[in-house]
Specification:
With about 350 residues, the protein is α/β, with parallel strands linked by helices. It is about 25% helix and about 20% strand. It has an eight-stranded mixed beta sheet with strand order 4-1-5-7-10-11-14-15, sandwiched between helices. The chain has a four-stranded parallel beta sheet with strand order 17-18-19-20, sandwiched between helices. The mean pLDDT is about 90.
């Protein structure tokens, strides 16, 4: 019998209405079969690991990601797949982080959640949970169909480190602007094999050292020198530079000087676009050529979530700057597409 470990971290999916208080409260996910009786028809061997206390996804951080990775590591050989129930607000960050932390992954790790509590009549929780379990259990010729970290939400399966939450009200809360779907749930589960990573043949291992000493500098017209210097002169190890369009910034001398000084201090600076779709192309326009000349790295078409967590992962490995810079611009887990 297929064995799936459900890891419940918290989030809307595990909430029910308290009839006495009229508020949402978490229910015991150890009683999942009672709350979702349809699971019995899947004929899977399900086990549940619940965080105690459960977490609002706004409180996710590197220590929680490390705890998740270690749970998967501890149970890796005993289970065929893993389903992580998670609040939707930071789900894309957790999926991105785990994609880098779980090296040589050959089993599915599917994150899902819901926009409505599982006890609501119109809830999306049951469908998301049931299909996430099916995806985690599906094998072909003894091999997992989706041996990577992914997000399942509203009939669509996304690569985890390509996903963003784009809508807080609709059931279709997630998108993958720069990468196709991995699978789609209709009458049948349709897997798009050309876009799914091959299972790794290496030894599975967990990278559990993350460096979170990273700052974000989001540009806007009229940004002040003081605002820029607050980031560039700090003791950060890396800066994510959110630029306009294809990676463009102001060419004001004071602005470029701030970036140059930060680069000269050894800070890793990665340029990603504020646009959700498309890619950074350093040097395409005059406004980004200076960045290229001073050694600022291109994030290509990475999401913000993937850029932040990839930096945490690479900085945590203690690499020398040259190797870190090289790896930052390479696709390690399918998180970016390099442009020529």
């Amino acid at each position: 019998m297929t064995k799936i470990l459900i890891i419940y971290t918290g989030g809307t999916i595990g909430m029910v209405n308290d009839p006495h208080k009229g508020t949402l409260i978490p229910f015991d996910f150890g009683q999942i079969q009672q709350n979702v009786p349809e699971l019995a028809r899947l004929n899977y061997d399900l086990e549940v690991h619940s965080f105690d206390p459960i977490l609002d996804s706004s409180n996710m951080d590197a220590q929680v990601w490390i705890a998740l990775a270690r749970i998967i590591e501890k149970n890796y050989d005993a289970f065929d797949g893993f389903v992580i129930l998670h609040g939707s607000d930071t789900m894309a960050y957790t999926a991105s982080a785990l994609s880098f932390m779980l090296e040589n992954l050959a089993k599915p790790v599917v994150l899902t959640g819901s926009q409505l509590p599982i006890g609501e009549i119109r809830t999306d929780a049951k469908e998301n949970l049931i299909t996430a379990l099916e995806i985690a259990a599906t094998r072909k010729n003894g091999v997992a169909r989706v041996p990577e970290v992914c997000i399942y939400f509203d009939f669509q399966l996304f690569r985890g480190n390509r996903s963003i939450k784009y809508d807080s009200d609709k059931f279709e809360a997630f998108q993958s602007p720069n990468y196709p779907l991995l699978a789609e749930a209709g009458v049948n589960l349709e897997f798009f094999n050309n876009y799914i990573q091959e299972p790794s043949s290496g030894t599975f291992l967990v990278n559990d050292k993350l460096n979170t000493n990273i700052g974000v500098l989001k540009l806007y017209p009229g940004i002040s020198k003081a605002a820029v210097e607050a980031i560039t002169t700090s003791s950060l190890d890396a800066i994510v530079l959110e630029t306009f369009g294809a990676g463009n910034t102001s060419t004001a001398p004071w602005f470029l000087n701030c970036l140059q000084e930060a680069a000269d201090q050894g800070k890793i600076i990665v340029d990603i676009s504020q646009c959700q779709a498309g890619s950074v192309e350093l040097g395409k326009y005059e406004t980004s050529r200076k960045l290229q000349q001073m050694g600022i790295l291109s994030g290509y078409d990475m999401t913000f979530e993937a850029t932040i967590t990839k930096l945490m992962f690479l900085l945590g490995k203690g690499l020398d700057k040259a190797e870190l810079r090289t790896l930052m611009e390479q696709s390690l887990r399918g998180e970016l597409t390099r442009t020529l």
